[in-house]
Amino acid sequence: MSSSTGSINWSQVYNTPIGQILEDLNPTVFETLLTQSTNNQITTLQNQEQQDQTLISAWSTLQSDAQSVSADLTTLASSATYNQLMASSSNNNVATAVDQSAQQGTYTITVNALAEPEIDIGSTANMTVTNPNATLTVPGTTSPLTGSFTITVGGQSATVVLPTSGESLNALVSQINNTPGIGVTATAVENSQGDWLIEIQANQTGQAISYADNTSPGPLYYLGLVSSSSTATQSAANILQAASSAEVSFGSTYNASEAIASTSNTLTNLIPGMTVTLLSTGTTTISVTPNVSAMVSSVQQFVSDWNQWVKDTQNLAEAGQVEEVGTGSSASYEFVSNANQVITSPLPLATLNQAAEVLGATTTGSGTYQSLADLGLTFNTNGTLSLNTATLTDALTNDPTQVLNIFQAVQQNLGIGISGVINGFSEGPTSSAGEAITTLNEEVASDKSQIALLNQQMSNEEEQAIIQYGQWVNSVSKDSERYSLLNALFNANSGSSSSGG
Predict the structure, then answer these.
(1) What's the pLDDT tens digit per position in 127-180?
(2) Where are the beta strands (DSSP E) in 191-279?
(3) Dihedral pair phi/psi, residue 75, rounded to 5°
(4) CA-to-CA distance for 20 and 213, rounded, in angstroms?
(5) Which of 197, 252, 311, 419 has the maximum number of C-beta atoms within 10 A of its C-beta?
(6) From residue 206, how far is each of 113, 203, 243 by CA, in Å?
(7) Would residue 253 count as lying in a domain?
(8) How many domains does the chain have?
(9) Which residues form the domain of 283?
């Protein structure tokens, strides 16, 4: 609705009591009076929608927490969790190992040599470069060095084309390094005489580098990387380090007749199911043992997720707690309400308490490890779990099968599927949490639909207010004119009576 009408100073237009009435009952007042009922309904629905959204968030949080705990128990009830292995090297300076599927045991290896990349360097035989940032020129001329050349490493080739305007040694180095698919890294180095040379290193170990100028003579020849001006493929003229293969054998001493050679220092076929990375020559023993630390981590994840579920349930669904006030003989107990409570349903707390009861009561078999407490998992007074990692590590080291049996018994006692304690609360749309969320989402959708209808109704009411205000102004204006006329007649008659007396 336009507010321009409401800005008229009616007291100046009508210097009568009617003018003050028009001033007080402006268009905004008219609009508010006509739409107040509808606006109140919209506010009520919006508040209800916000409450429902808060409830959806709370139920979703508890549903997610319970699902995490259920997933953790599934992991801990799986034999695969306790079959994890890890590889370790007795000398990480010689080699490191990562296990994928290797057999449990120990493997002693001796590294006689590491795989090395080829490193080549140019010379000043045909060209002397004293400034790596100056444009390279053909010796004896002022013409820029141009042309192209190809570098091949391990069967992979890439060609570099120098610009017709020429470029500096540093620019050429950058161009080589930025050439797609090239298998080398170039560097500009300074020798003891102060001259600059190009150095080329293969990006792969154990692979020879070959060069070919595509013009004769070409850039490689002038830079001294090759010794002949021929365009045929050539080896480097100056090899600082030849490409070589790694050599390794089993046993505490190197056995050349049974050695394994590799162009890479990362070996995936030395020990089946394991990746071994060679770092230096020497001897090391690689051990493949149960990965107890990974098993401990799985239990720690369960404890962490359980404690989060407890914390969120108590925060979102608990009305309050009885707390002790004072100490000794003056101690008393009082109920302290929970201001953060969102969910009033008893289901979340009941589910959590039932699950905790199962966790604490489950026992299996005989021997040292029969319950979660024997594994180092104990309940705190607030319902959370504590984990003694030393106790758990001992149990996993000594009898991982019994640890598996305990968690399998826990999962069985909690129940699997929608009828289970935890899954019945959290899994799928027919679970307790799922049904609550579905119902709330339906209420939110209904609220949104009603709000949309009421907003349209209020828009219509605002338009009606404009019409009614205009009609009312016209009516009041006429009354004001009649008032002015009658007032003038009254004043005139009153003046005549006074003068006649």
Answers:
(1) 999 999 999 999 999 999 999 999 999 999 999 999 999 999 999 999 999 999
(2) 196-202, 209-213, 239-241, 246-250, 260-262, 266-267, 274-278
(3) -65, -45
(4) 100
(5) 197
(6) 12, 10, 5
(7) yes
(8) 3
(9) 85-115+245-290
